[in-house]
């Protein structure tokens, strides 16, 4: 089977949320699995000398308009969190911890976090909220809270972010299709075309 | 007839060049004309606190890769100018000067400048080169050189850039379809869908 499509994202990325609703289906249409790779956008923006998107003059206003429009286009519920952006450390840590034991549950948790952040305006950066979202998946609250505080789990997220940077990930979402890089939810049509045609 | 699609661009924007090859056809498919509006990206980037795209870590490398890939996708010749970016003042001034007298010629000159910059690696910021490109259109070299040095023509480009900023243009290319803003060559499919559907 061909290599999975890599889906890199930050939990506080609106376009990452929108891509999370589409990427598995796009990959599946072409017989591909996906690998979900949360990372932190903060250090990437810092390296680039960039402020968060919504804080950049002109671009920020456009982005606010476009987040909502991009969501409407795919019929997805969306609301910009009242506190935005935040560093999605806790969900990223929980994701990698869980993924080692059960990848499907990790992905289900990721979806729940995205929904909490971008639909329900809950604080997805709060470990207690992440633990609450994980409970329906059969994850013990205390076990998760202990896990996300462990140095080796923190290290996983640092390593993922370092890997993203080393591989040229310049924003969220970011995709690799057989090594080919694509940045942005609005490039999903190119991801699909690359899968279809093998590249151009 | 419905309002024309507005096409805002900087003459040293690779994505602006790629959009210039497509926008008229896209608009025409939906019974729309286009209005071409060159402006200067420099002051917009400055207001945003942004460096030129290719100078931003991570993003710059991605952009270089993506310029070429985006060109291949539409079968367009492309090469990044050896001196890049530059302020496309002279061609923008020549464009507005010419557009007052003959819009079709102004557009033909714009196409010639884009080709000179992004295919032939010529200095599209040099008034002498712009004059040379205008000659086949029946424009006197000296008349053009005098025009682009006139204060009222310089003012036109300043005013266009100020208008772009006031209307939220955050990059190049930028489109307005019945007032709806779209940023980026990779959003042309959304421009087309908006024209098709009247919006979503």
TrEMBL record, chains A, B:
GO terms for biological process: glutathione metabolic process; naphthalene catabolic process. InterPro entries: DSBA-like_thioredoxin_dom (IPR001853), GST_Kappa/NadH (IPR051924), HCCAis_GSTk (IPR014440), NahD-like (IPR044087), Thioredoxin-like_sf (IPR036249). Gene3D superfamilies: Glutaredoxin. It comes from the Bacteria. This is 2-hydroxychromene-2-carboxylate isomerase. It is an enzyme of class 5 (isomerase). Belongs to the GST superfamily. NadH family. Its EC number is 5.99.1.4. It comes from Inmirania thermothiophila. The active site is at residue 13. GO terms for molecular function: 2-hydroxychromene-2-carboxylate isomerase activity; glutathione peroxidase activity; glutathione transferase activity. It catalyses: 2-hydroxychromene-2-carboxylate = (3E)-4-(2-hydroxyphenyl)-2-oxobut-3-enoate. CDD domains: DsbA_HCCA_Iso. Keywords: Isomerase. Pfam families: DSBA (PF01323). Residues 5-193 form the DSBA-like thioredoxin domain.
């Amino acid at each position: 089977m061909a290599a999975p499509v890599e889906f890199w994202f930050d939990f506080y990325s609106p376009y990452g949320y929108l891509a999370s609703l589409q990427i598995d289906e796009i990959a599946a249409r072409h017989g591909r699995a996906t690998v979900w790779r949360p990372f932190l956008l903060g250090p990437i923006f810092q390296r680039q000398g960039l402020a968060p998107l919504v804080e950049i003059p002109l671009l920020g206003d456009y982005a606010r308009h476009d987040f909502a429009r991009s969501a409407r286009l795919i019929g997805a519920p969306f609301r910009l969190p009242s506190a935005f952006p935040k560093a999605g450390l806790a969900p990223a840590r929980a994701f990698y911890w869980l993924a080692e034991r059960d990848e499907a549950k990790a992905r289900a948790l990721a979806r729940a976090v995205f929904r909490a952040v971008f639909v329900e305006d809950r604080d997805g950066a709060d470990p207690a909220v992440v633990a609450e979202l994980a409970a329906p998946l059969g994850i013990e609250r205390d076990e998760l809270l202990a896990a996300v505080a462990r140095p080796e789990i923190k290290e996983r997220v640092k390593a993922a972010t370092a890997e993203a940077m080393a591989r040229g990930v310049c924003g969220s979402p970011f995709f690799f299709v057989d090594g080919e890089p694509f940045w942005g939810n609005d490039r999903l049509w190119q991801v699909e075309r690359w899968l279809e045609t093998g590249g151009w």
